[in-house]
Specification:
Low-confidence stretches: none
Mean pLDDT: 85
Distance between the termini: 64 Å
Helix content: over 70%
Shape: globular
Structural class: mainly alpha
Length: 238
């Protein structure tokens, strides 16, 4: 049994999750502070990949990143780098498809946060940077962890957009999802069942680990923020 699809799936899902983690939190933070009209428009644009068929997302990516696309032709001519039919091509597809899950979940956590704590922090003269890192993020940790898990799971199981932009090349671009489909086409159901079992085990382990982390670090809402504000206030008084 060749384990390359497992290795390739994990590294693609891991890298795309890191990308969506930072970009999703950044987008959720700034859009949650935007005016209502702009928030509605940006919400629709950023959530669009969630409702589009993955093959449509893959089609748009091919038009942009393919050898004849504007971005793909530039990268090929300027740096001799192909953005399609390589293992890292799948990172573009999985990041775009999983981004809405990260963005929407984190934005919901930010919107549900008690804004009076932010106003209280500002009356103490605390900067927005301090409030973001020491007040907002710790209190929205559960939502951020849930969003990260959803993004990773979505990236791990992505098939439609990935197969359009990377294809299936054993030992180079094959992932678990594309391998299962290829094995089914070849009539090798026994090996396909093994890969399905591997995918189920990974997903189960990830969910159990996250539930354990949530249980270990969970604390009452507002406690972290209140403690941070108290500590900062005492430091300023000293």
């Amino acid at each position: 049994m060749d384990w390359f699809p497992l290795y390739n799936s994990l590294r693609i899902a891991g890298i795309s999750t890191v990308i969506t983690f930072f970009s999703g939190i950044c987008a959720a933070y700034y859009i949650s502070r935007a005016p209502r009209f702009a928030k509605g428009v940006l919400d629709c644009v950023l959530t669009l990949p969630l409702v589009l068929p993955p093959t449509v997302v893959g089609f748009f990516l091919l038009m942009m990143l393919g050898p004849l696309g504007p971005v793909g032709s530039f990268m090929l001519e300027a740096f001799n780098v192909r953005l399609t039919m390589t293992w890292y091509s799948a990172i573009f597809a999985t990041a775009i498809v999983s981004f809405p899950l990260m963005y929407r979940t984190v934005r919901g956590a930010f919107d549900g946060f008690d804004k009076t704590l932010i106003y209280s922090a500002r009356t103490l003269g605390l900067s927005d940077t301090f409030i973001f890192w020491r007040v907002l993020l710790p209190n929205c940790r559960d939502g951020i962890i849930a969003a990260t898990v959803l993004a990773f799971a979505r990236a791990l199981g992505e098939y439609g957009a990935t197969t359009m932009i990377t294809g299936y090349i054993p030992g180079r671009t094959a992932t678990i999802s594309t391998t299962v489909y290829q094995l089914w086409r070849e009539g090798n159901d026994a090996l396909a069942y093994k890969w399905v079992a591997v995918n189920l085990v990974i997903s189960f382990i990830v969910l159990v680990a996250v539930n354990m982390l949530e249980t270990s670090f969970r604390q009452p809402k507002g406690r972290a923020a209140g403690q941070s504000l108290t500590d900062e206030f005492e430091e300023r008084r000293a």
